[in-house]
Known about the structure:
With about 180 residues, this protein is of the alpha+beta class. The protein contains six helices and seven strands; from the N terminus they run H-E-H-H-E-E-H-E-E-E-H-E-H. The chain has a three-stranded mixed β-sheet with strand order 5-4-6. A two-stranded antiparallel ribbon has the order 1-7. It is globular, with a radius of gyration of 17 Å. The N and C termini lie close together (about 10 Å).
Amino acid sequence: MDNLLSNYMKLTEMVDSLAERIRGKLRDSITCHKGCSGCCSAITLFPVEAAAIRRRIESLPLEISEQIREKTALESETERCPLLEDDCCLIYENRPIICRTHGLPIIFDENGTRRLDCCPLNSIQGEKLEGESIIDLDRVNHLLVAVNALFLKERGVAGESSQRVTIAVAVAGESGSKGKIT
């Protein structure tokens, strides 16, 4: 499985590096910190992200992994991310790509118009931002789609690239009627 996830791991490293550079440039304007979870909502994941989360949870001690499975099953219908405990992510080092960009200035296409967005708690509004201080979310998402397609192709399920799953499904290791994710 590690080999199948290597492209995804490289993408997460790239996004982390980009996010760290942006935090360095914007320093005090970014107020995101441990326990700040306003952006943490229940999202859906590509199969490659689900497999990475599943692998992480399976690597934890059995007692902890079972607690996470129970928690996500109980909270799977809420708007908040079921992987939050005391406003902290239980798998922070292995969080999905979108979570790695939360709070930072992002630019994306919305109905044919480029839109800039950032967490309103950050003091960036009104600042003139350079391109190096903004994450092009569409580019990141295109890379994620490509990595996911390659992951599925290597697993022999290339036709399912658009099938996304909830965090609770990812943690449980299911992918709907298709069976196991991992």
